[in-house]
């Protein structure tokens, strides 16, 4: 699959307007999710891992107990693309 184009700054701002909880941090889409316990946090990561494989688009993320921190960028494009927005949208749909 061809690498998508980097989004422009206005396009990123528009996407952020529709992505509740996400912000721009270090030129990446960033959000921390908090769950009731580790089981819920890890279940969320497991579901999202399957999405990552399907999209061939992989997050930078970490987990501490009930928290999952995610940073999204498209390494092949050197910035944020529609794939990052798609992944963030999916993450929100699993969590909110
Ligand atoms: C070869 C492989 O398709 C690429 O390395 C994919 C894999 N997953 C990826 N994930 C992310 N976040 N960015 C990429 O550029 C990327 N590229």
Automatic annotation (TrEMBL):
Name of the top EC class for this enzyme: lyase
Key word Lyase present: yes
Catalysis performed (reactions): (4aS,6R)-4a-hydroxy-L-erythro-5,6,7,8-tetrahydrobiopterin = (6R)-L-erythro-6,7-dihydrobiopterin + H2O
UniProt KW keywords: Lyase
Tree of life domain: Bacteria
Record-linked Gene3D superfamilies: Transcriptional coactivator/pterin dehydratase
Transmembrane regions listed in the UniProt entry: none
Enzyme Commission code: 4.2.1.96
SUPFAM superfamilies: PCD-like
GO molecular function, one term: 4-alpha-hydroxytetrahydrobiopterin dehydratase activity
Signal peptide: none
Entries under PANTHER family matching the protein: PTERIN-4-ALPHA-CARBINOLAMINE DEHYDRATASE
Listed HAMAP family: Pterin_4_alpha (MF_00434)
Family label: Belongs to the pterin-4-alpha-carbinolamine dehydratase family.
NCBIfam families in the record: PRK00823.1-2, PRK00823.1-3
Protein name, entry field: Putative pterin-4-alpha-carbinolamine dehydratase
Source organism: Synechocystis salina LEGE 00031
């Amino acid at each position: 699959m061809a690498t998508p184009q980097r989004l422009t700054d206005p396009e990123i701002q528009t996407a952020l307007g529709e992505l509740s909880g996400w912000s721009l941090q270090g030129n990446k889409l960033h959000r921390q999710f908090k769950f009731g316990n580790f089981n819920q946090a890890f279940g969320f990561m497991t579901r999202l891992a399957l999405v990552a494989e399907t999209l061939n688009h992989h997050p930078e993320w970490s987990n501490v107990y009930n928290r999952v921190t995610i940073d999204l960028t498209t390494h092949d494009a050197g910035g944020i693309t529609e794939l990052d927005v798609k992944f963030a949208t999916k993450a929100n749909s699993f969590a909110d």
